[in-house]
Amino acid sequence: MAQRKMTQAQQRALEIYARLEETYPDVRCTLNYQNPLQLLIMTILAAQCTDARVNIVAQTLFQKYKTPQDFLDVPIEELQEDIRSTGFFRQKAKSIQATCRDLIEHHDGQVPGTMSALLKLRGVGRKTANVLLGECFHTPGVVVDTHCKRLANRLGFTREQDPKKIELVLMKLWPHNTWSRYSHFMVFHGRATCTARAPQCSECILHDLCSFPNTRKGKEIAK
Fold this sequence. Notes:
Layout: H1 8-23, H2 36-45, H3 51-64, H4 68-72, H5 76-83, H6 89-107, H7 115-119, H8 126-136, H9 146-154, H10 163-173, H11 179-192, H12 216-222
């Protein structure tokens, strides 16, 4: 069967990918996990918190909690204290225990490896599911976090604001085998250059492929 001809948007996306790959050759998940359960818990903790802080908390957390049952065997107040520094610790502790209970009751304590099963876990959304699928189950996924959302709009990939709609657009635009790595590039470039408040447009390797510097908002930020 003949392959479909790439659209101009897809060709542009490939050029952006190539430049980002050259700039960030060692791109990776910045959460330091050792197994799927750890990554699952860390993605819950990472909401409204830096990966650096989560990594610090995880160093002691996973010495104490090694299985889903371990998270259920302590009073929720104790778990809250163990994760307090990640912020929103009450809700996160509640989500962690609910997710661990689901793992035990429906998956023999193991993290499932499909989107449908992951989304049935309380406390797990598409972003977390795609992180897990890409990192632990060799299934590429588009991870729409705050960086991906910002860059997807600025680079003109989409004008959508809803994360799920952005994900669907990018799935059609980015080659399937690049989804997870492309998502990492969005994070790295968003942190290094295309920051929220003061993007370094004049120094950006994607300057000639990006319309944002010429938009009204882009010009206002550049002042």
